[in-house]
Structure formats: structure tokens, C-alpha cells
Amino acid sequence: MLKHSYSERHLTEAGTDEAGRGCLAGPVFAAAVILPADFHCEMLNDSKKLTARQRNYLRSKIEAEASAWSVASVSAGEIDRINILNASILSMHMALDGLHLLPQLILVDGNRFKPYRDISHACIVKGDGIYLSIAAASVLAKTHRDEFMISLHKDHPQYQWDQNKGYPTEIHRRAILRYGYTSWHRRTFRVSEQLSFDLR
């Protein structure tokens, strides 16, 4: 089980995290989660350390048992316009906007964030492996984004987004060379560098 159920026992805390920051295609998703004080789940961890089956099980549990949760996304076009860091923070702010409870403290995975309203926040590097609420947010952001990319795959099967979810795998990069970009691709990412491998 993760080390900490909360950072400050007397405060209502929301954990927040994003998914899809390093992708060549698709939106960046973020989630915000407020867990009840008695929430317990030994399986819950950083979503990257879980299998797809575990993540989907945990998504159902979190959505059923959280005091409040919300998921939001920022499009590829907006990512190109404001850059991926700002888009990631914007998506976390949007997820916080969607909570029906107002947190008193925001726990953020990573080391960059912008103030949200007048609520205190704490940035925690690898926080999704430390705090339950951040881990829960990482699971929701990841599963909702994966679901979205699988739905896009039906119209763009050549990129195999059902497998790579928009990340720069060799198959995805080769497909960009052959078929070009879709409206779901992030045009400002340095894809030319991503494609600098031997294509013979």
C-alpha cells in the first residue's frame, strides 16, 4: 500500500495528476480526486505500475467510493497553442473545477503547477507513488484517456492507437511518415526528431 493516505489529516485534500503528456497524438487528460478518510485499497499505486486490468478495476472502485472526482482534457490544438506544460496544468485546473467539493489543499504530482483559486497546493515529485489521492487521480486520468484513444482508433486504425495510445512507438512514427498527420496529432511536437531512426 502507498505510504500516505493524506498529507494533512485535518484538511480536505484533492490529489491531481495528468496522463498523455508525452504523446504525439490525442488530448492530455487530468483527474482530481478527493478520497474519504477511511478509504483503503492495497492495490492502488502509480498507474504506470499497474496492469490495464488492475487500472480498470481501480477506476470503478475510485469512482464509486471517492468523496468527489472529476476528469478533464485539453485538445491537441490547445496543446499546440499554449504548450504541453501549460495544457497539463490547465487540464488539472479544469478537473478541479469539476469537483462538487472544494478542497482545502491540492496535492499535485510533479514539480510544476500554477495557483488554483486561493487554495494552497503542494507539488510532490513521484507523488503518485506516495499519496493515495494522487495515485487515484493517475488511475482515472490514464483509464479515461486510454478509453478515448481506443475510441479514436476505430477511425484511424493505421496508427494503432488502441495499442500505443498516441505515444511515440515505432509503429506510430512509421505511420506518421506514411499517412501523415490527423487532426488529433500535436503539430508542435518535434516529430522529425522522433522519426530519426533507420527506416530501411
What does this structure look like?
This protein has 200 residues and is α/β, with parallel strands linked by helices. It contains seven helices and five strands. The chain has helices spanning 52-65, 76-82, 84-97, 132-153, 161-164, 170-179, 191-194, and strands at 13-19, 28-34, 68-74, 105-109, 120-124. Strand 1 and strand 2 (28-34) form a beta hairpin. Helix 1 (52-65) crosses helix 4 and helix 2 (76-82) crosses helix 3. The N and C termini lie far apart (47 Å).
CATH superfamily descriptor: Ribonuclease H-like superfamily/Ribonuclease H
Query: Between the first and last Cα atoms, what is the distance in angstroms?
Result: 47 Å
Strand content: 15-25%
Please state the CA-atom Rg, rounded to the nearest Å: 17 Å
State the main characteristics.
38% helix; 200 residues; five-stranded mixed sheet; 5 strands
Write a concise synopsis of the structure shown.
The chain is built from seven helices and five strands. It has helices at residues 52-65, 76-82, 84-97, 132-153, 161-164, 170-179, 191-194, and strands at 13-19, 28-34, 68-74, 105-109, 120-124.
